[in-house]
Every structure is written in C-alpha cells, then in structure tokens.
Amino acid sequence: MSHIVQIRTEIRDEFAVQAACRRLDLVPPRHGSVKLFQEETAGLLVELPDWLYPVVVDLTSGAMKYDNYEGRWGDPKQIGRFLQAYALEKATIEARKRGHVVREQPLADGKIKLVIGVGGAA
Question: I need a labelling partner for 30 at 20 to 30 A (CA). Which of 47, 53, 58, 91 fits?
C-alpha cells in the first residue's frame, strides 16, 4: 500500500547533515561561529556553493540561520537543495535502522521519490 507523506524539515541530526554535504559534494560541515549581519551565531556551519557566508544549523532547535542578502550573497535554491538532501539522508538513516530497504527514484522535475520497503521489500 502506498502513502503520500509531507515532511517539515528540522535539522537535528549531525550525521544526516554530514551525509547531505557528501551527497552535494560540499565541504564537510564544522562546528563554529560566524557573524551574520550584526549577530554572532554559533552552530554547525554548512558552506553552500557560491554563498558569501555559511548557513548555521542549530541542532538543538532544528533551525537554520543564514544571510544571503535577498539572494545577492547566495542563491536561495541552494537552501532547497540542501534541505532535500538532508531529508533524504535522514529518512534513509531512520528506515535502515529499522531494517527497511530504501530506493531513490529521481523525478523529471528535480524532486526525488524515496521508496521505503517495510520488511525488506522495496
């Protein structure tokens, strides 16, 4: 039986962040702090392609902070790519922990359909 699921992504798993960065061929994330506008912000730093400043992930709250100056300092599409990669990696990690088989199906519009086989069937 098939089900449609909507996910609101909160970023709380450092291993899934690392996997998402590998998937996207990004520099490995690192813990640190960076000044975004007038505020010093600390967390897990993710460097997106062609962004002036890194995205700061607060693993406790699940929130991301970034300054891309309304797209002038970084293409907002890169946030979407990162969130998609994180969600795929997190769902895959959790499914495999439960012994399920995971299969990805790239779609023509750039989305990725994740098929999880309960009990090993996908």
Answer: 91
In this prediction the pTM is 0.86
- Nearest CA to 49 out of 81, 72, 26 is that of 26
User: What are the tens digits of pLDDT across the range 61-83?
Assistant: 999 999 988 888 999 999 999 99
Provide the number of structural domains found in the chain: 1
The verdict on residue 54 lying in a domain is yes
Q: Taking the CA of residue 84 as centre, how many other CA atoms within 13 Å lie in the half-sphere pointing to its CB? A: 15
Cβ pair 24, 43 in contact under 8 A: no
Structural domain that includes position 40:
14-120
Q: What is the DSSP string of 5-53?
A: ---------HHHHHHHHHHTTPPPPEEEEEEETTEEEEEEEE--TT-SS
